[in-house]
Amino acid sequence: MTHHVRREHPHDACAAIVHYLATETDLHKRTLLMEDLHAKSRSLEEGPRQRFSDAALATFAAEPESQAALVPMVDTPEQQPVDVW
Amino acid sequence: MTASHGDVTSYVIRLGRATDESVEPARRDLHLWLAASLGSRPTPQALEPRIATLSFQDVHTQAASINDLIAPAETLPEDETVVFDLSATSYGLLREPLLAHVARAAAKTARNAPRTVVILMTRKPNEGSSLLWDPLKALEDAAGTIVLVDGKGATRQFGRRLRIPDGFREEYAQRQAGLTIPTRQRFEEKLVRRLGHFDAAPLRGAQRCGRFFYDASKCVDEVADLLAENVRSVVDLERLTNATLIIAPGHATWMEEAGLLCAGRLGMRSVVLPDPVPSDMPPAVSETCNVVALGVVNTGRSLGRVLTALERWGGPVVHAVAALTARWPVPVGDRDLSADALRTIALEEVARDDCPQCAIGRPFSHYDAAKEPLVSVTAYDFWSMALRAPWEEETYGPSGTPRFERTPSLDEVFDKYGDWIASVYDRLLDGLGLSNEVVVISPDEPAVGQLVKRLRARFEARLVPIAIPREVLDDAKAYRHCDTQPTVAERAPGWQEQLRGLESGTAQVVTIDEFSASGSTQAAMARILEAHGIRVEAHLPFVDRAGHQGTGPVIGLYELSSARR
Q1: What pTM was estimated for this model as a whole?
Q2: Do the chains contact at B391 and A3, CB–CB below 8 Å?
Q3: Which H helix or E strand runs over B120?
């Protein structure tokens, strides 16, 4: 049995997630969107990855209190997912 | 095989895997009532119908094996009533070789003894082409009788004539209606509202994008039945005999077949109009009475072109019916014409300049689902569904693990988008080589139950669901095969009987869940299945949040890195 399943390009996935971040105001949902963006952008090259990171950060500009929930876009050993769905 | 020597012997002939061994009490009552109504004794003794199951592969290649599952005629009492119930399976799934073997078995049973054989089918096979008829028609001098009953209770007899009791047809239809899913419901369940990014330009030159595309290719039979019912409600029988059904499928490729089936059921002539409509009148167009049938009406322009052509040709139209319409009432301009549709739809179209999917550069989806390269759910679609659903605290799951504080209601996601999600699973299973028939094992919980329900509506008898209670999964480490005294299993013996039925077979088995958050539920299912010696092909959660953790291949329709901790 073949286990390979064709999925969308991470670039398309990241663009979609940033689209929802631009309008979503619920903190829990934003956090999970950020986590998803973080995971999907891992395989992108540095340039596109940074652009999506910047675009995501820009969506927080209007809501400074949301910054606390922001999952870093840079992989670090201590980075842990946030415990929300 | 020896038969039970009662007054009635009945078989429910099913296709698929022999893992669901129960017969509804109402079906057993139906068989008893048939024996009382048509058999030799007014009060036949209680019976337990037997299930004769053929796999989808066997029905193609070894349909004769049905004879191994039913009692030979010579073992039956001379006045026995025998019921061959094929009505539990969609007519479209039955195959001619199977019908031929059932007819031969019925003929052999009724030929030399005054037995009554009743064959139940949802529909009578085509008189000219089906292999069912020849063995039955050769029974002119038989000692017994064969009664063929269709889904509406209409009968046809072969051999010795019986008197059909007054009111038989109505009561049969009523009893059968309690057993079968109504056509309208099947249509609704099998119609797929595909989620995606659909370019309207190839269909009608409009610079617009649609969020949805409706695909009725899996419910052609139901569309045909509903169209026929609709036409019949408007055009009387006398007019129908001289009428032509003008089928304008447009881009709905499934409509041609549905229209032709509809015309056949109504005894109408039919003509399929190509797109664009030709300038010359096709010969089959009636000069006195035409009915127009379309696949999808959106703006009404295609319908307008068909009606204009018929006016030009001098072919009067008495009724127009669309399978699906985005506008209500169905737009027929200022014509004085009855028009109807089986269902209204919402395409959620936007101008290209306002399309959020174009703005982020999402590629267009294929109108033909088979050509869609992705066998998964995209981020745009996943988040669209998840963010539209209510978010709530997780209320059930593996014991001893923390619950998610907030989770989208996947129950609601499956309710609203389950038709499309099931179609993605269909393509995934096809890609894994599991398209023929598959056993789907899941926890016995609400959301995944809703998902399995949608899968079953799409796969019909090709899918056998088995739901394992959560308390059994929680205690999976202690699970033993039922021969060695199960602990909790006694509470739900049905699922365990189903697993036992899989032990010696070659069934293709997958496990499924709404999401995989730690891999613990999958591991529990795997342990229980291992105890029964059942091999699992893959675990296919809707959302894989655990990053492929688990036993064997794990393929989620969407991958979301957010494990339960």
Answers
A1: 0.81
A2: no
A3: strand B116-120
Nearest CA in chain A to B362: A12
- The mean-pLDDT minimum among A66-80, B211-225, B343-357 falls in A66-80
Q: Closest to B380 (Cβ–Cβ): which among A5, A16, A84?
A: A16
Phi, psi dihedrals of residue B351, rounded to the nearest 5°: -65, 145
- How confident is the model at residue A83, as a pLDDT? 36
Determine the average pLDDT of the residues in B317-336.
94
Query: Which two three-digit tokens encode residue B449?
Result: 């139950």
Determine how many CB atoms are found less than 10 A away from the CB of residue B67: 15
What's the whole-number average pLDDT of chain B? 88
**Distance between CA atoms of residues B269 and B284, nearest Å:** 7
Closest Cα in chain A, distance from residue B507 (Å): 14
Residue with tokens 């026929």: B228
B344-382 b/e with 16+ CB inside 10 Å = b?
ebebebbeeeebbbbebebeebbbebeebebbbbbbbbb
Q: Å from B197 to nearest chain A CA?
A: 12
Q: What are phi and psi of B349, to 5 degrees?
A: -90, 145
pLDDT tens sequence across B304-318: 999 999 999 999 999
Packing angle of the helix pair A10-21, B379-388 (nearest 10 deg) = 30
